[in-house]
Amino acid sequence: MKTQVKSKEPIKVRVKKLANGNSSIYLDIYTDGKRTYEFLKLYLVPEKTKSDKTTNANTLQLANAIKAKRIVELQNNEHGFSNTALKSKVKLFDYIQKISEEYFQKLLKEKQPSINGKVKGTHQKLNALLRHLKQYAGDKIILKQVDKEYIKGFIAYLKTAKNSLYREYERGTNCSKYLSQNTQHGYYLDLALCINRAYRDGLISVNPLRQLQPGDIPKKQEGVREYLTIDEVKALVNTECVRSTVKQAFLFACFTGLRFSDVKALTWGDFHTDNEGDTFIQYRQLKTQKQEYLQVSKEAIKFMPERGEASDNEKVFLVATNGHINLALKAWVMSAGITKNVTFHVSRHTNATLLLSLGVPIETVSKLLGHSEIKTTQIYAKVIDKNKKEAVNKLNGITD
After folding, report:
1. Which of 114, 136, 228, 291 is positioned for an S-S bond with 232, CB 3.0–4.6 A?
2. Where would I find the H helices in 238-345?
3. Per-residue DSSP letters for 45-91?
């Protein structure tokens, strides 16, 4: 039995019940008096568990993204249709969904880790952009309506938007923290990417981005890197934390520079000993998917838990999510008398600034942190230079 999902558009998502209990998803395409079907090889499963519901929701999201792509292709004459009236009604929301789905398809095919990471990032950012665009002016805006005022309005909206809007949509929770200046800048760039492409595709005759003044565009700010001094690290070492695993993982990261995702993924089998008896780890960096080799200092090893009878495949640090850890961190940091806003990622900043302040060459620090570009590491060098300048300025007036 076919179940129809109502839509006024020429392409509809339908599902057909299969003998095994699953449902096959397909597109019902009706144009120029002809009806065709495209079976997507996507299936819905009986919703017996919460996991089943999540799986079905993700599958339907992909099916609707494919539908959006087909609509844009239809309206853009890519299937040989010549209905220019349809072409003029392409929705901004559908067009961005099409681009996002293209990146998703690339993600499935791409084997090179470094490219895969960039493709995945773009796909995720476009999906986040769609959520904000829907919150701003709905999802019915057609590309021809995207003018200078629409874009300026979206930029103004970003100034008061919440940075965890996706949680409001997907989890029903609320977040009071607003978007940072750099996040606003990023969303503008993502929207600009799609508008520029629409202009190249001939879907709009005027590029509204060219009508903006430099002052209209959100500026990117140089990131401020919070970090701990060696005295603050010592204070944490001497302060009890209600969750010992959090203390161990954070201090280990302070002396290795590993990201939370990589610390959490470490297994005992990742640790090795070289010919000189020193410890190193071989691991795949989750952010870049690159294989890394990192020497581990004796100071870092101090904060590792006892292995006991754990096998090579077992995790070293049995920690929860980043969010839960940050809550425990805040209480621990306050107990140590530290007033800085400390998240787990501050451990990575701390490692970089400690190494640079100890005279380690910036090129070496960059390699230890696994940075793909040295300019990322140079941000920490500027922090050290600023501290040196402030230290020297304290001498001003000392003999007056």
Report:
1. 228
2. 244-254, 260-265, 298-301, 322-335
3. ----SHHHHHHHHHHHHHHHHHHHHHHHHHHTTTTS---HHHHTT-B
Strands of 11-17's sheet in order across: 2-4, 11-17, 23-31, 34-44
CA distances from 118 to 121, 157, 158, 297, 336 (A): 5, 27, 24, 32, 39
Contacts of residue 98, defined as CB under 8 A and 6 or more positions apart, other chains included, come to 65, 68, 69, 72, 73
Res. 76 pLDDT band, cuts 50 70 90? low
Q: What is the mean pLDDT of the chain?
A: 82
| Stated pTM of the model | 0.54
Element containing residue 92 per DSSP (H, E): helix 92-109
pLDDT by residue (tens digit) across 39-55?
A: 888 999 999 999 899 99
**In the predicted structure, residue 311 carries a pLDDT above the cut 60:** yes
Please state, in angstroms and rounded to a whole number, the distance separating the CA atoms of residues 378 and 361: 11
Q: Confidence band (pLDDT; 50, 70, 90) for 168?
A: very low
Q: Would you mind telling me the total number of residues written for the chain in this entry? A: 400
Query: What is the set of domains in the chain, with CATH numbers?
Result: 1-83 (3.10.450), 90-221 (1.10.150), 230-393 (1.10.443.10)
What phi, psi does 37 have (nearest 5°)?
-125, 145
Q: Report the alpha-carbon distance of residue 220 to residue 270 in Å, rounded.
A: 38
CA distance to 30, 77, 83, 319, per residue, from 74 (Å): 11, 5, 9, 49
Q: Return the number of other C-beta atoms located less than 10 Å from residue 346's C-beta.
A: 21
The predicted structure's pLDDT at residue 189 = 95
Residue whose token pair is 């970089």:
352
Write down the number of H helices and E strands in the chain: 15, 7
Instruction: Give residue 133's pLDDT band: very low, low, confident or very high (50, 70, 90).
Output: very high
